[in-house]
Write a structure and sequence with these properties.
Largest sheet: 8 strands, antiparallel
CATH topology of the largest domain: T-fold
Helix content: 25-40%
Strand order of the largest sheet: 1-2-6-7-10-13-14-15
Number of helices: 11
Distance between the termini: 65 Å
Number of domains: 2
Number of strands: 16
Structural class: alpha+beta
Radius of gyration: 23 Å
Order of helices and strands: HEEHHEHHHHEEHEEEEEEEEHHEEHE
CATH class of the largest domain: Alpha Beta
Bound molecules: adenosine monophosphate, magnesium ion
Length: 361
Amino acid sequence: MKRNIWGSRDARIPIAAVLLGLTCLVYGCGTAPVRQQSRVDTAMGTIVTQTLYVRGGSGTVYENGESEAATDAESIFIMQLLEELEGRELSWRAEGSEVAEINAGAGGEVHVVPSSSLREILGQIWQISADSDGALDVTLGRLSRLWNMDELAAEGGQMSVPSIEQVRSALEDTGYERARFSGDALILPAGMQLDLGAVGKGIACDRVSAYLHSQPQITGAVVAVGGSVVTYGQKPDGSPWKVAIIHPREEGSYLGVLSLTGEQYVSTSGDYERYVTVDGVRYHHILDPATGYPARSGLCSVTIVCDGGLTADALSTACFVLGPERGIALAENYGAEALLVSEDGALHMTEGMKKIFSVGE
Ligand code: AMP
Ligand code: MG
């Protein structure tokens, strides 16, 4: 008779029971109640909203009336994760971050070997830059600093529009195709500055997702890092996740709602997020790398839904720059769903988006 490495058939039953017992001890056997953990914090210069569904553990109220103190450990861990991503890796403002270190060398040609995680990120970004004809270009750091929209918009500040000469000069230091990868090294021409603002919050969603996957007690979650959102798992009642899309022209109201199931990534880019109006002209934070000026593609908002955070965030920025027709084509090329809103209020949607987006609600 052939012997199974698990031993005889009869011996398998007690082994399975022991394994199940251990699993029950660790994860509450699936019978412990699921608790909703909700928090609102700030990180990465934006608001982070988390709703996690956690089985057992802290905060659990048992049927016999006993309970455990709620520590929100998982949500707190996620905030630490985001702070580290910003401070150690992505922020050009955070002294000592990997990107800030690269930018600090821009007095001459930069020759660096980025961490493997940054190399992978840059690889994905460069691919989307190429596929979007440069509509996404994270080498425009000098330009985004010149426009300085983040701080101006936050202060409601007075802005003097940069001169054509200033824009031209900053533009000369940009161009993703002028950066080179040689083996593991990244080589940037002198003067080039990186700004990963267009993808940072999407990358944050990817990191949050990796953490959620590593925590079997988390049965469902929706985490929004500013305009980038990740949904994961299931709600206890099995109903779809609802993600509201901000109305680009009516402050405080929503354009509509996305109904999503399982793991999805959503990113919205809009000209209403950070802008200053000068002489009736809206100067916003999404720049056209071809002109050096805020993109004038006829769009005021772009939402992308797809299977990756970085991709969703990168595509929302790129599609905004490209405008309705080319934007839809780029999204389709990536198997992503897109909702583009024109300044005249017209909605442009991929076929799949029509099934998951409802106006109003
Ligand atoms: P998002 O809100 O994701 O569309 O990203 C906008 C931010 O990305 C801006 O605040 C800039 O820091 C940066 N940015 C603006 N335009 C571009 C662009 N065309 N390509 C890459 N980054 C950009
Ligand atoms: Mg973006």
